[in-house]
Structures are given as structure tokens and as C-alpha cells.
């Protein structure tokens, strides 16, 4: 049975920026996961977002399929996605809904106001709140990397960032399958950081690495730990892009969701940079003793996203 992960807790409201940055650095080097508290997103708003999410996923399948994903926005049905390319599973036992940058709102799809009158304003409000928390966290990550606090702003990464909110629903009863079915099969996130909140139902697990060497993500897993919900906290994890930016100093940790027999909802916010931002090894993460790794060579976000989202 998997043990509970003992993740660090980062207080986003702390006025001691240097100490907080040092805690973030330790968390990102050792775990790639941490809890974020005092982030400024009200519990009342979170409750409304979960309620609206439940309403959407409770709609008849035909109504949801009218909003089938286009331009990486909209509805993805049950078993339509398998996040682990080495798995022979029929697909992950989850359905989801993507909301993209609000600046490009014409590309987003929304349920009709007749069906869900409060849905769009609730999601837009939540998107803006989490974006604000994420940008504040990114400034602390810059300090954690011995960079100026506004480094990522200065290079244009946060100029209309390509950030997505994903609503997720995992059904409780799956029926009988010959093969193992995952809620979300083992994967790492491709972007900068992910801010996740769940409804409290367990299932999320993170892979425990036995080495600090930059990893091949899809080797057979050895040890997994449960990442439990913490009231009032986001679960934050580092993505592949930040791992590349930091020359593999920060961990983009493999994680998965296991079925528990309970219905489960979660909200994942993927904070990624502007699509024209060039991602290259940071000078503070590269030295004679720590030369730039091949996989950390410069690339454009647009090229990287096309590779992982196809």
C-alpha cells in the first residue's frame, strides 16, 4: 500500500520572500510537488466552481458532446485519453473540460446560459484568481533560481501566458475490466507549473525517485506515494518546461490518479508561458560543473505543445 507523501507547505502570503524562495527551491529539487496555502482564492469561490463542474458533468452525454474539444478547448469524454504512451489501457477513466486563455475567449467553448446560467462567469472568475496566485508564485520561483523576482515577466513569459483550466471528473463505478484502468495514467505535465485542487477524494499519487539525475519519465514505476488533499491548499507540481528551463535542477515528477471506487472531482490550472517565449537553460542553473543537458536546448513553446498535445 502506498505511503503518504510528506510534502512541504509554502505560504504565499509570507513577507519573508527570501526564506519562502529557499523553501520553494528545496521543494522543487527534492519533490517537484508542494502544498501552497494562503493563495488568495476564496473557499466560497472554490465551492461554487466545484458545484458548477458537477452540474456540467451531470448533463446528458449528447449535451456534453456538443462541446467536444476543439483548439484544445472543450469537452473530452471518458476513456478518450491515455496519458501513458507505454500503456495498452483502453483509456483513462475520466472526463474533462478545458478552458483556455480568456484573452482568446473566442476560442473557448461554453455551455449555454439556458442550461448553466452561472457557469461561464464562475469559471472566468476562478481562472483570473488562480492566474494571479500563479504569477505571484512564479516570481518566488524566480527568486528560488537566483534570478530577479520579475525575470519571467521581463522575458515575456507572462505576457498573455498560454494557461489552461481543466475541470476533471472521475466516475466512482467503472465496471469490470481485464486490464488495469487508471483515473489518469502515469504522466508528467509539460508546462511551467500546475496548481491543482481536489474535492478531497483521494487517488493522486506521485512517483518516488531514487536518484537526482534527470529522469526518463516512462520507465516502469517502482514506488508511489499518495498525495492527499489539504484543506485550503493547492497542490503544486513542476512541469517539463520548468525542468528544462532549470537544467533538470527542478523535478517534473511523474504522477497518476488511481480509481478508489469513489466519484472524484478536481480542478487543474496549467500555467504556461506565452507561445512565443523561448525556453532555454537558465544561466543560474548552468555551470562548468553542471553543463547544459541536451534536452535543455532552446525551443519554442509552440513546437513543444504541438508535440505533446497531438
The largest sheet is: 8 strands, mixed
- Give the C-alpha Rg: 19 Å
The strands making up the biggest β-sheet line up spatially as 2-3-11-8-13-6-5-4
**Helix percent band:** 25-40%
In terms of DSSP E residues, the strand content is 15-25%
Span between termini: 34 Å
Number of strands: 15
Shape: globular
Mean pLDDT across the residues is 90
Note the total helix count. Answer: 7
The parts where pLDDT drops under 50 for at least 5 residues are 306-310
**Category by helix and strand content:** alpha+beta
Describe the structure using short key phrases.
single chain; 310 residues; alpha+beta; five-stranded mixed β-sheet; 7 helices; 25% helix; 20% strand; disordered C terminus
Describe the protein:
With 310 residues, the protein is of the alpha+beta class. 25% of the residues lie in helices and 20% in strands. The protein contains 7 helices and 15 strands. The protein has helices at 17-30, 43-57, 61-65, 119-144, 151-154, 240-245, 301-309; strands spanning 3-4, 9-11, 33-37, 74-76, 95-99, 164-170, 184-187, 193-198, 204-207, 224-226, 234-238, 255-257, 264-271, 278-279, 299-300. The strands form 3 sheets. The protein has an 8-stranded mixed sheet. A 5-stranded mixed sheet has the order 1-10-9-12-7, with no helix packed on it. Helix 1 packs across helix 4 and helix 2 packs across helix 4. 39% of the residues are buried. Residues 306-310 have low confidence and may be disordered.
Amino acid at each position: 500500500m502506498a505511503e503518504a507523501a510528506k510534502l512541504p507547505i509554502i505560504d504565499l502570503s509570507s513577507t519573508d520572500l527570501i526564506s519562502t524562495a529557499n523553501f520553494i527551491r528545496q521543494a522543487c529539487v527534492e519533490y517537484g510537488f508542494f502544498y501552497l496555502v494562503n493563495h488568495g482564492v476564496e473557499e466560497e469561490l472554490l465551492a461554487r466552481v466545484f458545484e458548477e463542474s458537477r452540474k456540467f458533468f451531470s448533463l446528458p452525454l449528447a449535451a456534453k458532446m456538443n462541446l467536444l474539444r476543439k483548439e484544445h478547448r472543450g469537452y473530452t469524454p471518458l476513456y478518450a485519453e491515455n496519458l501513458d504512451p507505454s500503456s495498452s489501457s483502453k483509456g483513462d477513466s475520466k472526463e474533462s473540460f478545458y478552458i483556455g486563455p480568456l484573452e482568446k475567449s473566442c476560442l473557448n467553448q461554453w455551455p449555454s446560459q439556458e442550461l448553466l446560467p452561472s457557469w461561464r462567469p464562475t469559471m472566468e472568475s476562478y481562472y483570473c484568481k488562480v492566474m494571479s496566485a500563479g504569477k505571484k508564485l512564479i516570481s518566488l520561483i524566480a527568486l528560488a533560481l537566483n534570478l530577479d523576482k520579475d525575470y519571467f515577466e521581463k522575458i515575456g513569459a507572462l505576457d498573455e501566458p498560454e494557461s489552461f483550466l481543466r475541470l476533471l471528473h472521475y466516475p466512482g463505478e467503472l465496471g469490470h475490466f481485464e486490464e488495469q484502468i487508471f483515473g489518469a495514467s502515469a504522466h508528467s505535465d509539460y508546462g511551467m507549473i500546475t496548481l491543482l485542487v481536489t474535492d478531497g477524494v483521494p487517488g493522486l499519487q506521485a512517483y518516488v525517485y531514487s536518484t537526482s539525475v534527470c529522469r526518463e519519465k516512462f520507465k516502469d514505476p517502482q514506488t508511489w506515494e499518495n498525495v492527499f488533499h489539504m484543506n485550503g491548499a493547492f497542490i503544486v507540481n513542476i512541469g517539463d518546461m520548468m525542468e528544462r528551463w532549470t537544467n533538470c535542477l527542478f523535478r517534473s515528477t511523474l504522477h497518476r490518479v488511481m480509481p478508489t471506487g469513489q466519484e472524484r472531482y478536481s480542478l487543474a490550472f496549467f500555467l504556461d508561458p506565452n507561445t512565443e517565449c523561448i525556453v532555454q537553460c537558465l544561466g543560474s542553473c548552468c555551470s562548468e560543473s553542471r553543463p547544459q543537458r541536451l534536452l535543455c536546448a532552446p525551443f519554442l513553446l509552440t513546437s513543444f505543445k504541438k508535440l505533446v498535445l497531438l
